Structures are given as structure tokens and as C-alpha cells.
Amino acid sequence: MKILKIDHLHENQRIDKYLNKLLPNAPKGFVYKMLRKKDVKVNGVKVKENYIVQYGDEVSLFLYDDRFAEYSKATTIYDLPIQFKVIYEDEHILIVDKPVGLLVQPDEKEEINVLSNQVLTYLSKKGEYDPQKDLGFTPGPVHRLDRNTSGLVIYGKDMRALQDLNEMMKKRHCIDKKYLTVVKGHMDEADLKGYVVKDQDAGKMRVVSADYPNALTMHTLVHPLRYGNDVSLVEVSLVTGRTHQIRVHLASEGHPVMGDRKYGDFHWNKEIAKSYKFNNQLLHAYSLTFTKPFGSMKYLKDKTFTSPLSGKFKEIVDDLF
């Protein structure tokens, strides 16, 4: 029998979700079979799959040690270089500045050297995360940025923080995210609303009419900061959070993002690449404000975190404006 004590990292989640994360290598349906057969007890009592584990709960698993070891293989910590900058950190959250070219999560092309694994390396070296001890929970990102978009990404360092942050993202208006980008043409102040779908064949998002099947609403606010020679530096706020929203929405308005190879202006991008040796979208997530945080995140109310322009983006802005 295996006995586990619920700590603050693992509290406030359903027992089935906790066990599925604790035993990621178990056969499909194994956890639910254990719950049905009374092979799982909390504080000596059988519980249903929707029971919410609390701090101090004692979870008993009637499972042989060798089987537990086989099913609960810990998260691998890689010795990775730390390419991100820490913007803010406390015991619950970590806000980092992601560079261009780094994925947030693994994909089929890059499984190891991604931002999330670098964060685990960082926390492990600080002694704040031990996958052997913290079975069932892994610090994770609350949102993502495209590989070639730089800027701020929030990580939850404990379960309650991660849950509250994820819920805040879903509800909108709780965290105000602002981006900086350079677009073609002189773009005025704009409150943009539209509809978008994912074009599976083309591998990108497509603007459609309101009555298009499965159309998703998108809402984008644009505030111009500076004008150059047929270019604008703009601040963009997302009301909704659709995939590639800024890039597809601004392009649909005739103001494509500089360097955007998927939705941008091919000829303009070619000129930019030649002039600045730059070959990806110029988009930076530069500001996060906790406008209406709740739960364990209330202490962050009205706090703003920023990432100033740097590198190639700053070089281009300084030259154009």
C-alpha cells in the first residue's frame, strides 16, 4: 500500500485528476478502476472520482510498490541553458520574458529545449521543484506565445495558483495583455471585431463572416504609438484570445505585421529581411496587468509587469521611428 499526504502543491483538485497526473504511465482507465474497486481511500474512507483533495488529506493507494514506480515515472529535468529573463517571481507564480525562437511547449520538431523545460531546470536548481517529491504536479504555463513572438509568459508554481490563473484567462478582463508590433501603413485607433476559423488544409486561421459554420468571435483593440514612413508602431490589446489573433486580424484590416511569413505582405517582408537580416513576425508581449485577479491571486490586483523592447525589435523601431 502507498500512502500519500496532500500538500499545498496538490490540494484543491479532483482525486481522479490528481491520480492521473500521479500515475501518467498507468493504462487508460486504471485510475477509475481503482476508485470503483475501493483501492483508493482518503483519510480511510472510499471517495468518488469528483472528490476534491484538501491540504492534509491522506490518500491510500492499494498498489504494489513496483507497480507504483512503473506507473509514476517522474518528470525528467534536463540540464538546459536558461534563455529567458525572470521579470517577477514569488512563491506562487513566475513571470518570464521569452526570447524569439523558443517554443513554450514541446512539439514534434522540438521535444526538449523549450521554455517550459527551461523553467523546470531553473526551479529545480533553486530547490523549488523536485519531480520525485512533487509527483502529481508540474509547474506550467498559463498561456502560450508563438515560437517567434517574444515577451511575457506566466507560470503557476503550485496547483491553486495554476488553477486560478487558468480560470482568470478563461473569464477574460482579469488579466490585461498588451503587445507591441510594427505594421504596414498608418493605422488609426481601432476597436476591431470579427470572426475567424482554423483552416486545417492551409495550416492557419482565416477571417470569415458571422454566419460561417463554427466561426469564433475575435475582438482586438489597437492604439497607435508612433508613425514612420508608411509604417506604424502600435500597442495591441486582446479582448479574446484566438490563435494568431493579432496577426490575422491586423492583416485582414490591411495592416499586416512586419515580418509575418504566414499572414503578412510577402514583398514588404522581403525588403525587411534584406535591410535588417530579420525573418519572422515583429511581435512582442510587453505588458501584463492583473486587473481583476481572484482566489489565491488577489494580492496581485492592479500590478503591472513589463518587458522593454530589446535586440532586433528595438533596433528596427529606433531606425524607423
Helical fraction equals: 10-25%
- Overall SS class: alpha+beta
**Number of H/I helices:** 8
The CATH topology of the largest domain corresponds to Pseudouridine synthase
CATH architecture of the largest domain: 2-Layer Sandwich
Report the top-level CATH class of the largest domain.
Answer: Alpha Beta
Give the CATH H-level superfamily of the largest domain.
Answer: Pseudouridine synthase
Q: Tell the overall outline.
A: elongated
H/E series: EEHHEEEEHEEHEEHEEEEEHHEEH
Total count of strands: 17
> β content, as a range?
25-35%
What is the domain total for the residues?
A: 3
Q: Averaging pLDDT over every residue, what do you get?
A: 93
Biggest pleated-sheet summary: 11 strands, mixed
Plain-language structure description:
By secondary structure, this protein is α+β, with helices and mostly antiparallel strands. It folds into three domains: 2-72, Structural Genomics Hypothetical 15.5 Kd Protein In mrcA-pckA Intergenic Region, Chain A (Roll), CATH 3.10.290.10; 85-170, Pseudouridine synthase (2-Layer Sandwich); 175-320, Pseudouridine synthase (2-Layer Sandwich), CATH 3.30.2350. The chain contains eight helices and 17 strands. The chain has helices at 15-22, 30-36, 65-71, 115-125, 159-171, 245-252, 266-276, 311-320; strands at residues 2-5, 13-14, 40-42, 45-46, 52-53, 58-61, 85-89, 93-98, 140-141, 150-156, 175-184, 190-199, 204-208, 216-227, 231-238, 283-290, 304-306. The strands form three sheets. Strands 7, 8, 9, 10, 11, 12, 13, 14, 15, 16 and 17 form an eleven-stranded mixed β-sheet that branches. Strands 1-6-3-4 form a four-stranded antiparallel β-sheet. A two-stranded antiparallel ribbon has the order 2-5. β12 (190-199) and β13 (204-208) form a beta hairpin. The mean pLDDT is 93.
